[in-house]
C-alpha cells in the first residue's frame, strides 16, 4: 500500500489532506488495505468509543472498517474495468468519520490493474483486397484488438504467422493505444497465388502474457493502376458534448485517378476499438461521419478514428480523424447523502451531526465548481469537511414541543453559464418512535401439503424483517381469525409465533378441501407495536387414496348379462364398462383391461373407453356362455383398481335370450345352484348321446365289412394283369394285404356344451 500524509480534520479546523492507499483489483473479500487506527494515531478502543465508520463517496460500500483493530479491508470485490473503464488512475474515494468530537478525514484507494483480460479482435476474420500490382513496402492498416486492461497489461504488440509476402509492425496512437500495420514485403502474383491466409496475434504485457488471434485473408486482385488518395491524411475536429444523434462530425474525401469501377470509392471506419464502432458511423459513398449516439465529455474527451477508402478494384488508403469533445455545462450538481440520522433526540447538543453528504458535478472547470447552502431559517448549518464533502449539524438547542420534525433542503449550485442547481430534502424527526413496520419477504406465500398429512408436519416458514433495532425489531407471528361463516382455517394449520414455521393441525381430504387461504399477522415489539400482513395460500396435493368406482355394471350385481348374436362381426360392441375415480390428476386417469375371460381371444376392452367389443367374428364353436372380468385401474402410485364381471350369452337369435342366460321369464333369475345342476344334466346327456352314436357307428362299420367280404367271396379271382401283389394301400383304413380298394369315410362330429341342446351330426363322406 502507498500511504500519504494524513491530517485529522476537526470541524473547527476545516483542513484536510487525502490519504492514499492502493489495492489490486479483484482482491478477495477481507483483503487488508490499511490500518486506519495507526495512521490516525488512535487505538482500537478509541475507534470503537468514537464510533468510527467508513462513508463511501458513491452508493455502494466496497470497503469496511474493523472498529476493534482499525484495519480497513475489502468488503466487496472491485473490478477496475467495471468501475473506471480505461481511465487511469482508478480511485475509490471515501471518508472516515469519528464522533465525539466530530472529526473526519478523506482517503482514496487506487485500484491497480491485474492482467485479467486477453486482447480480443472484434472480427475473427479480416479480409483484405490487394492488387497484384501493389509495390512492396505498401502499408495496410489493420483492425486493432481490444484489451480493457491498462498499462503493461494492455495490448503491447502484434505478430503474424509465417508467410512469404507480409510483415507486421506495431504502431502507437496519440492516446497510447497500439495498432497494427501490415507491410507488403514481396510482390503479389494473382496467377501464382490468388489468396494468402495467415493469422495475426495481439499480445499484452502481463505476466504471464495473454493473447488473442484473428485470421487474415488477403485476396489478390487484378492490376488496378491507382489507389485512392485522401485530401488530408489527418482531420482534426471538435464537437460539443451535447450534440444530438446523427450530428455531422466531419466529411472525409478521397479521389482515385482510375475510371469506371476502379475509380468508385467506398468509405469505411476501421474497427480499431469497440467504442468508436458504437459512437460513429460513416456514409460509404459521401464520407460523412456522424454520431451514432450522444457524446459525454465526462466519459471520454478524445476519439481517434481510422477511415479507409477502397476503390472498386480493391485498392485502399487510410486517414486519421481526431475528434475532441468540448465540455458544456450539461450536468447539474448531485447531492449524495452518505449518512443520515432521521430521528434526533431533542436533547442533542449543538454541532451534533445529522447527515453527511457529498456534492459532485461531473463537468470540469467552472462548470464543475460548486457551492452549497440551506434554504429557510432552521436550527441547522452546513460545515465543510473537505473538498465537496459536507456535514449537516445542529446550530442550536432543539425543542420538540415547538417543532416535531424539520424538512431540511440542501441546495447545490455550480458556476457554469448558465448555472445549474439541484436540491435534496432531508426529513429530521425529533422523536424516536417505532416507525418501521415488519415487512414480509413475500406478499403471498404458497405452500403445498399432501392430503392425509400427519399432524405437526412442517409445511414451510414465513419470514418478516423489521429494520428497527432491539425490541422494536422482534417480530411475532399469528393467524388472523377468518370471518364468521367461512372455513375455520385456523383449525387446519398453525404458525409458530417466534420462527414463523407453519405446521398442520389435522389431516385433510383433497376431495373435500383442495385449497384454502389464511391471513398471517406479523407485529413488532415496539410501543405501540407495528404490524404487517401476508396471505398464506395452502394447496392440498392429491394422494391416490380412492379406488375406481364402477357405475356400470353396478357393483352390487353379481354379473351383468349381455347378449351377442352368433353372426356378430369383429368389433361388435358388447357392453361398456363405466367407472369414476374421486381423485384428481393422474390418480383419476383410468385404464381398462380384460383380466379374465372364458375365451380370451374372442373379446377385447378399450384401454381408455372401457368398451367391450368382439376381437374376431363369433363362430359356432364358441361356447354359448362367456364370463368376462374387466379390471379398471388408475395411474396413481401405488395404483388402485376395481373389477367388473360381465356374463355374455352367444345366441342365434334373441328369442332364446332368457334361456341362454338362465332366466325364467315367469319366475325371474334361477339360483346359481340350479344353473350348475342343469349344466351337469346337459353334460351327462351329451356323453350318453356320444357313446351311443359311437357304438352304433362301430356296429354299422362291422356289418358293412362283413357284407363286402361275402360279395368278394362270390366273385371270380382277380386277373394278375389288373392287380399286383401288395399293389395298393389306402390312405385311411386298410382291410387286407390283398384285395380291392377299401373306401374310407371321415365324419365330423360337432358338440356344443352349456347351450341346453346337444347334437351329433353326420356330414357327407369325404373320399380320399
UniProtKB/TrEMBL annotation:
It is a single-pass type I membrane protein. Its main location: membrane. Keywords: Calcium, Cell adhesion, Cell membrane, Glycoprotein, Membrane, Repeat, Signal, Transmembrane, Transmembrane helix. The keyword Transferase does not apply. GO terms for biological process: homophilic cell adhesion via plasma membrane adhesion molecules. It is found in: Cell membrane. GO terms for cellular component: plasma membrane. The chain crosses the membrane at residues 679-702. One of its GO terms (molecular function) is calcium ion binding. Gene3D superfamilies: Cadherins. Residues 15-121, 122-230, 231-335, 336-440, 441-550, 555-673 form the Cadherin domain. Pfam families: Cadherin, Cadherin_2, Cadherin_C_2. Residues 1-16 form the signal peptide. Potential calcium-dependent cell-adhesion protein. May be involved in the establishment and maintenance of specific neuronal connections in the brain. This is PCDB8 protein. The lineage of its organism: Eukaryota, Metazoa, Chordata, Craniata, Vertebrata. The gene is Pcdhb8.
Amino acid at each position: 500500500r502507498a500511504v500519504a500524509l494524513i491530517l485529522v480534520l476537526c470541524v473547527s479546523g476545516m483542513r484536510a489532506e487525502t490519504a492514499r492507499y492502493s489495492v489490486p483489483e479483484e482482491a478477495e473479500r477481507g483483503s487488508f488495505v490499511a490500518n486506519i487506527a495507526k495512521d490516525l494515531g488512535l487505538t482500537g478502543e478509541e475507534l470503537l468509543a468514537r464510533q468510527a465508520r467508513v462513508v463511501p463517496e458513491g452508493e455502494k460500500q466496497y470497503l469496511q472498517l474493523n472498529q476493534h483493530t482499525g484495519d480497513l479491508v475489502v468488503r466487496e470485490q472491485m473490478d477496475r474495468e467495471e468501475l473506471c473503464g480505461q481511465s487511469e488512475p482508478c480511485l475509490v474515494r471515501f471518508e472516515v468519520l469519528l464522533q465525539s468530537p466530530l472529526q473526519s478525514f478523506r482517503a482514496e484507494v487506487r485500484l491497480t490493474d491485474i492482467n485479467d483480460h486477453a486482447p480480443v479482435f472484434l472480427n475473427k476474420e479480416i479480409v483484405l483486397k490487394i492488387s497484384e500490382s501493389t509495390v512492396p513496402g505498401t502499408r495496410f492498416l489493420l483492425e486493432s484488438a481490444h484489451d480493457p486492461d491498462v498499462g503493461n497489461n494492455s495490448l503491447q504488440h502484434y505478430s503474424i504467422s509465417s508467410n512469404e509476402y507480409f510483415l507486421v509492425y506495431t504502431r502507437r496512437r496519440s492516446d497510447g493505444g497500439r495498432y497494427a500495420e501490415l507491410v507488403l514485403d514481396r510482390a503479389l502474383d494473382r496467377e501464382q497465388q490468388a489468396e494468402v491466409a495467415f493469422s495475426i496475434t495481439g499480445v499484452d504485457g502481463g505476466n504471464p502474457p495473454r493473447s488473442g488471434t484473428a485470421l487474415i485473408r488477403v485476396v489478390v486482385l487484378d492490376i488496378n493502376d491507382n489507389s485512392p488518395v485522401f485530401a488530408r491524411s489527418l482531420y482534426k475536429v471538435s464537437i460539443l458534448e451535447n450534440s444530438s444523434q446523427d450530428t455531422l462530425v466531419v466529411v472525409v474525401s478521397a479521389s482515385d485517378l482510375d475510371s469506371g469501377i476502379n475509380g468508385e470509392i467506398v468509405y469505411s471506419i476501421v474497427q480499431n476499438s469497440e467504442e468508436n464502432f458504437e459512437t460513429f458511423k460513416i456514409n460509404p459513398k459521401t464520407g460523412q461521419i456522424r454520431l451514432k449516439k450522444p457524446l459525454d465529455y465526462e466519459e471520454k474527451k478524445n476519439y481517434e478514428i481510422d477511415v479507409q477508402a477502397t476503390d472498386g478494384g480493391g485498392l485502399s488508403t487510410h486517414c486519421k480523424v481526431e475528434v475532441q469533445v468540448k465540455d458544456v455545462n450539461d450536468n447539474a450538481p448531485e447531492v449524495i447523502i452518505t449518512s443520515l440520522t432521521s430521528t434526533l433526540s431533542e436533547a442533542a447538543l449543538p454541532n451534533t451531526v445529522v447527515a453527511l453528504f457529498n456534492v459532485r458535478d461531473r463537468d470540469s472547470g467552472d462548470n464543475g465548481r460548486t457551492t452549497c447552502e440551506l434554504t429557510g431559517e432552521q436550527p441547522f448549518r452546513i460545515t465543510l469537511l473537505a473538498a465537496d464533502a459536507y456535514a449537516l449539524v445542529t446550530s442550536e438547542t432543539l425543542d420538540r414541543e415547538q417543532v416535531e420534525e424539520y424538512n431540511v433542503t440542501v441546495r447545490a449550485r455550480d458556476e457554469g453559464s448558465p448555472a445549474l442547481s439541484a436540491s435534496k430534502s432531508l426529513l429530521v424527526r425529533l422523536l424516536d418512535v417505532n416507525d418501521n413496520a415488519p415487512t414480509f419477504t413475500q406478499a403471498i406465500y404458497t405452500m403445498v401439503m399432501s392430503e392425509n398429512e400427519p399432524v405437526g408436519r412442517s409445511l414451510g416458514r414465513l419470514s418478516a424483517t423489521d429494520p428497527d433495532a432491539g425490541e422494536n425489531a422482534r417480530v411475532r407471528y399469528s393467524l388472523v381469525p377468518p370471518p364468521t361463516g367461512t372455513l375455520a382455517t385456523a383449525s387446519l394449520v398453525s404458525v409458530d409465533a417466534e420462527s414463523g414455521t407453519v405446521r398442520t393441525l389435522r389431516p385433510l381430504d383433497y376431495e373435500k378441501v383442495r385449497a384454502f387461504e389464511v391471513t398471517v399477522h406479523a407485529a413488532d415489539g415496539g410501543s405501540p407495536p407495528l404490524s404487517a400482513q401476508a396471505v398464506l395460500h395452502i394447496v392440498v396435493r392429491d394422494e391416490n387414496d380412492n379406488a375406481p368406482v364402477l357405475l356400470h355394471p353396478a357393483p352390487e350385481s353379481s354379473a351383468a348379462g349381455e347378449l351377442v348374436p352368433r353372426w356378430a362381426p369383429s368389433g361388435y360392441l358388447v357392453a361398456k364398462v363405466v367407472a369414476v375415480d374421486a381423485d384428481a390428476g393422474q390418480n383419476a386417469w383410468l385404464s381398462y383391461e380384460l383380466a379374465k375371460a372364458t375365451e380370451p381371444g374372442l373379446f377385447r376392452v378399450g384401454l381408455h373407453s372401457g368398451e367391450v367389443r368382439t376381437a374376431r367374428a363369433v363362430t359356432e364353436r364358441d361356447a354359448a356362455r362367456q364370463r368376462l372380468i374387466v379390471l379398471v385401474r388408475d395411474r396413481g402410485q401405488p395404483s388402485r383398481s376395481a373389477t367388473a364381471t360381465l356374463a355374455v350369452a352367444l345366441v342365434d337369435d334373441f328369442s332364446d335370450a332368457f334361456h341362454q342366460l338362465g332366466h325364467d321369464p315367469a319366475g325371474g333369475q334361477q339360483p346359481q345352484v340350479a344353473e350348475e345342476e342343469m349344466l351337469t344334466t346337459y353334460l351327462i346327456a351329451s356323453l350318453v348321446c356320444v357313446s351311443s352314436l359311437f357304438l352304433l357307428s362301430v356296429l354299422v362299420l362291422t356289418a358293412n365289412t362283413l357284407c363286402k367280404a361275402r360279395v368278394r367271396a362270390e366273385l371270380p379271382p382277380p386277373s394278375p394283369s389288373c392287380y399286383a401283389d401288395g399293389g395298393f394301400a389306402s390312405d385311411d383304413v386298410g382291410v387286407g394285404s390283398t384285395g380291392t380298394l377299401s373306401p374310407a369315410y371321415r365324419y365330423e362330429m360337432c358338440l356344443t356344451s352349456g347351450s341346453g341342446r346337444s347334437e351329433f351330426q353326420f356330414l357327407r363322406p369325404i373320399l380320399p
